[in-house]
Amino acid sequence: MIKLIRQLLWLSWLPIPCFSFAAERSDILLRIGGQTVAKQEFEFYCKHSLAGKCQTESVNEAFDDFLFRKLKAADMRQSGCDTLPAFRQYCKVMRGELLKNVLLDKEQEERICRDLYRQSVERLSKSGWVKIEQITILLSQHAPKADERAARNRMDSIYAKLKSGADFTSFSCQPEGGTWIPVVELLQEFAGRLASLSKNEFSEPFFSPLGVHIIRLTDTKPCISYEEARPYLLAYMERLGADHPALKHDLFTQWREGALHNDAIRLCMTDAEDKLLASFWDKLHSSSLPREATSQELEQFFLQKKTLYMGVSTFQRGCDSVCQ
Fold it and tell me: Taking the model in full, what pTM does it have?
């Protein structure tokens, strides 16, 4: 009850032009700001967003949480937050991930991944795998001499700092430890440098068709496991686009023609967008939101108001005696 009262107080801050329950259609749960909210959205929220909490919270409490999140999201949409480039890019990436789950046959994709792994492991393991970190200044193959000299001078300066004990990862844009790469797929310039390095050693600056580099060998092994190779295999198949071997071509054609209407994607998108917008609202109002008082604060407040409570208690006893 306290939680619901607090939420109702917060609702008075939201500039929502309309909030009403709709009874004219059985599939519409309510309207917020002139927009309908279907019962399916609340059912999806209970099933996915609350997860284990649904077993401990009543439907009324879950609805309170759902309603307040919808109000926050509506407020942010009214302010135009959903039109910001960063938000739209997030939604675009998220929609792409959701579409992959619908347009691809996941079981077939997994079988193809394992087949590719078996086919490639023998070829790629002939020279082994290496994990490397690199510091790179990219240059075009027809870069002016002045740009080459500037890049080489910059890399020589970094190399001198590394020799003096500077942290390699502070100059590298890759994850610490690097990534696994089959030696047979490395540029000749990289493979040649690695041949003379021991584990955790780094090379002198060198040029390749990509630019100027310093590389550090962090680990080696004859082959990588399927679990380690799987992200690379999936990325390879994604680059095939419409030629992806696990693509459901009938659904892909519908999507390309704008005729794919999938409730699962729509509900996932709406739920994820609302969640993100609600988080923006929380950040925006974090300094003004009321919070729960701690037990120490409540005790201190009681001690400060103790005489007032005693007066109320005495007055109540007096009223009780009169009523009797």
Answer: 0.48
